[in-house]
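User: My collaborator sent over this chain with a note saying "see what the structure looks like." That's all I know about it. Can you take a look?
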Amino acid sequence: MNTNKSTTGIDPKEKLSFRKIAVITGVLFILATLTGPILARPLLPVLTGTDYLTRVSALPNQVAAGVKLSFRKIAVITGVLFIIATLTGPILATPLLPVLTGTDYLARVSAHPNQVAAGVLLYIIGYLACAGIAVAMYPVLRKWDAGLAIGSVIFRTIETAFYMVGLVSLMSLVTLGQQFTTAGAADRTSLQAIGNLLVIVRDNAALVAVFAFCLGAFMYYYLFFQSRLIPRWLSGFGIVAIILMLTACVLSLFSGNRITSYIPLAASIAVQEMVLAVWLIVKGFNPSAIASLSAKTATDELLSVA
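Assistant: Without extra context I'll predict from the sequence alone. Here is the result:
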């Protein structure tokens, strides 16, 4: 009797993973509904009719509160996405997947198809959250530099795309492993060679993805440092951590080792992102930086009218 299965036939590890996915999704639904339509919208005047400009000018504090709440919403969503991207991949998904080393990894993969499927699902959520981080911050960061803001979105989307290539290779290993376990000795050699190629594709796709991550993340950390939306010690920490991560990528590229071989260099960005996530959720963006931007925007509008 398999003691690892519950009465429902689902592995307890998979059941716990699905539960965490459900909770994270529920929190995001609540944030998206409460902060926008319910909290922010009532603060803003209706922008219809011929006198909407008069109404807006008569309620500057209310409009500012609505804008501030919008920035607050973006900060919270971004923080949650940082946590999802970190939790679902390295912490939740990785333990579910068999180690893809040795000569028997195909047999190990084929023996745990549901576990691999749960890991892939978690990775998909995490990788989409990676792209979502830059997308969520774009409306804020474009006010300082639209080029760098859209650049961060592009490179973090490229990151997600290459991670997805790696997932396709991983899913292919399940089918290949099932064929491997039933194949004769003559066919196993060729199937093992195909499996090794898929593992190499996954590793190389991950390396390219991390390169893209470094470029995209450097862009928004530079904008954070420039705009002071978060404390400079935190954005500066991010820039240094990204440089260390980029160093790990270059070493991996020239040595042929997996990027995971350079954990000491990569660890700093994981710590920084968790600190940033908590900061954004608890503190949000710097109100004085937002006020400075609003004042600059108002001045530019007056000058353009003049």
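A starting point for your reply to your collaborator: DSSP finds ten helices and no strands in the chain.
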